[in-house]
Amino acid sequence: MRSIGLASIFMLVAIVNGCGDSDRPKPANTQSNSYSTIKDSFHLLEGSTEVLPKSSRSHLARILNTGSDSQFKPTLFQRAITANGVAWVFLNGNKVCLLQGNRGAATCSPASHARVKGVLLGAFSPPSKRIPRPHDFLLMGLAPDGVARVAITIGTRRQTIPVRNNLFSASGDRPVLVKQFVSGGR
Amino acid sequence: MTTSILRSSRLMMALAATIGLLAIGLIAGQGQAKAAWSVFCNPVNLPTYGSYCYGAPRTAYQLMGWGDQHSVCVSVDQATRRCSAGPGHGVYTPTFGPFLVNPLIVNNAKGSNTAHGIVYQP
Questions:
Q1: Do the beta carbons of residue B44 and residue B55 sit within 8 Å?
Q2: Backbone angles phi, psi at A105, to 5 degrees
Q3: Where are the domains of chain A?
Q4: B79 contacts in chain A (CB < 8 Å)
Q5: Class of B36-121 per CATH?
Q6: Tens of pLDDT along A88-135?
Q7: Which of A123, A156, A179 sits opposite B90 (nearest CB)?
């Protein structure tokens, strides 16, 4: 009986240690394993890799602070159309990145973070003489597999939007914010 | 007996009406939470790439920022930094708070940049 109890404890410790180990240093030859782990969470990344236009590549290298274009080695580029324009999803090292094709804003999140919380990005137009407050808000997000919908707010109005191919987007004249992921899909 | 039934049904109707009004009030009240804007580092000159400005800590729903000459990045945690496309383009953190934050805005290009930060807060 005692040996069964000890075995259970060892199994539990093994399971707990096995979780969330993605941020630990890994040998370089495990990169493909790392890719497959990330792909397991975002089926969008399983598609054939696409080529980012050169101008967009330079723009990304500049705003993601990767130094020169030659030092910028993103992988697994995927282009997708959302309800509010083009999104580019890619990996930069062990980070999952999202570029808003129309607005040019970009962000990257560590894979371990992205697998749970997704990758979320908001862009807006700053105050101008004509409209003296932030306006023209655009939200784009990459949700992990299993998220079917996303509860958002636009100003004080709540709504739920669908996730298609891991991506979702919404726009409004008030801040568009993510409240929570709603599971139900792959 | 009839009087008793009438009395209890009136009580039930009054109770139902009260619950209904409460529910309407709750539904109407949802999403009407008061929110306000405040500024941080707005405007501030960030002279070089990577120079940054922190605002005073506060409770926030969202951070937003833009630069007049170049891209800026805003951040609420170490894990994720969100960067605007370039001058005159704003970027914001799209997760609904509230969260306690030291709002941060960073110059994301070589050269001087006039940065602006705004916090959307309860």
A1: no
A2: -75, 155
A3: 31-183
A4: 109-110, 113
A5: mainly beta
A6: 999 998 899 999 998 899 999 999 999 999 999 999 999 999 999 999
A7: A123
